[in-house]
């Protein structure tokens, strides 16, 4: 069974940066490499929304609200996906979740102070 563990969240001032990591286990290296992955977030009182995705071939897609500020990447050898978040805004707050197929991590909290 695939397990995903997110890390790297925290409190940062507006304009600052955070680097989120998601480590996958319970999946072979080959299977991991063949699957796309995504980052989602859920702000207080709101539905979970897509932040960014990356395909097995490395193609990326971003929510309009984070384009130009966030970068998703993957390290297949380590079975990890990274979300580099720059120029953070108050509206970026929430719990950030990693997704692979139908599996989800528990999330990591991101807070931004003005």
Describe what you observe in this structure.
This protein has 114 residues and is mainly beta. It is 4% helix and 52% strand. The chain is built from one helix and eleven strands. The chain has one helix spanning 29-33; strands spanning 3-7, 10-13, 18-25, 37-42, 49-54, 60-62, 70-75, 80-85, 94-100, 103-104, 108-113. The strands form two sheets. Strands 2, 4, 5, 6, 9, 10 and 11 form a seven-stranded mixed sheet that branches. Strands 1-3-8-7 form a four-stranded antiparallel sheet, with no helix packed on it. β5 and β6 form a beta hairpin. The mean pLDDT is 97.
Write the layout of secondary structure elements.
Blueprint: E1 3-7, E2 10-13, E3 18-25, H1 29-33, E4 37-42, E5 49-54, E6 60-62, E7 70-75, E8 80-85, E9 94-100, E10 103-104, E11 108-113
Short structural description:
The chain is mostly beta strands and 114 residues long. 4% of the residues lie in helices and 52% in strands.
| Rounded average pLDDT | 97
Helix percent band: under 10%
Number of strands: 11
Basic shape: globular
Helix vs. strand class:
mainly beta
Span of the ends, CA to CA: 40 Å
Strand content: over 45%
Main features:
114 residues, globular, mainly beta, 7-stranded mixed sheet, 1 helix, 11 strands
